[in-house]
Amino acid sequence: MRLFYDALSWFYEYFVFYYGLILLSSYLMLVFLSMASIRGYLKRNSYTKNDTIVYSPIAPGVSVIAPAYNEELTIIANVHSLLTLNYVNFEVIIINDGSTDSTLEKLIAEFKLEVIDFSYEEKIQTQPVKQFFKSTDLAYSKLLVIDKENGKSKADGSNAGVNAAVFPYFICTDVDCILHKDTITELIRPIIQEPKRKVLAVGAPLRMANSCDIDGGNMVRMRPP
Fold first, then answer.
1. Full-prediction pTM beyond 0.85?
2. Which domains does the chain have, with CATH numbers?
């Protein structure tokens, strides 16, 4: 009987030893394989670094769409903020959704807008669109303003912006939201990194702007509200 227990103890000790050795070896092998895989991934996606995306003329085009209804108090600063986003290939589409105040008049005066002929295809049905405006100042060449009848919802205004968008990707925001200067870069990155176009939409966190310091439409200091 003692020989049996001695043999069993010997078997158990060696089993635990070799089991641990094989387990640790497999973990070590996985570490090296993971390192090789990560290096290959970074090499393949080195073009998705911020500076590369921001300054590349072939970066995917993005339309920033922002409906506005009775926003005369903040419309100018907010549009200036959208126009200063840190990206090359983008446009800003402001939809005046039947405002009853001076929102449209202020936009026309500040950005030197004039009525243009625009090839508009209503792929998504909305309330009737009245006019399209572009600036005569090249500094605001990225800006398009749409004047339409009120659709009684943000979605109706956003859909009009989608219909008019030149680019295949769009960001739907509120005109009174302040976007971080790298918003477009960060949102387009997952789409660029996925070669099989499996990424259909990207979201982002929101921060309350109360108590934050804002200068010229840009948040210069973030503090809790």
1. no
2. 59-221 (3.90.550.10)
